Amino acid sequence: DAGVIQSPRHEVTEMGQEVTLRCKPISGHDYLFWYRQTMMRGLELLIYFNNNVPIDDSGMPEDRFSAKMPNASFSTLKIQPSEPRDSAVYFCASSSTGSLDEKLFFGSGTQLSVL
Amino acid sequence: TQLLEQSPQFLSIQEGENLTVYCNSSSVFSSLQWYRQEPGEGPVLLVTVVTGGEVKKLKRLTFQFGDARKDSSLHITAAQPGDTGLYLCAGATTSGTYKYIFGTGTRLKVLA
User: Could B104 and A42 be called an inter-chain contact, meaning their C-beta atoms sit closer than 8 Å?
Assistant: First the structure.
């Protein structure tokens, strides 16, 4: 299996622009998570899906952030408009059953820089 | 808000030394995981502990879950340069929804 695939690996954009991050989870995994990692705040959970349905989006910073999962093999995280404070590494992760000892498989992340 | 605090934040040691990193919270977790993350990559799971007082060994790494399931430790024996990385603990909660909360991380550098 190719693992969790994220694109792009790096994104540089200007403040005010729309940014879309993409994720393909591992085939057969029912749970998908979006995390954001910064030096100051560490790894924060933004939102997670179960069977394509958003379950908990309490970590989404504000209305500028939105996430969708139109099917089992694809998810997007959109920021509009982007701001410099959104600069971070964004990770997508997936897992199969959602049990408490389940392993999260992470992608390699998208390094976002908003100028 | 459930928080997981890790200590120390940074650790630089010589090859062959032993070390322990800690993960503490005021909240009770149903299970706790340890991950290692290398630069430019996502975290990779090392171990999951689910029972209070549980101890797991993975070669030179020993993981312990506190009796009250609020804290955990990771001990590395005879550290090697390949152990260098960011170590993250993650606690699972089922209060309403299932999700993992990550700690602040310990950045370890092992010098040859």
Answer: yes
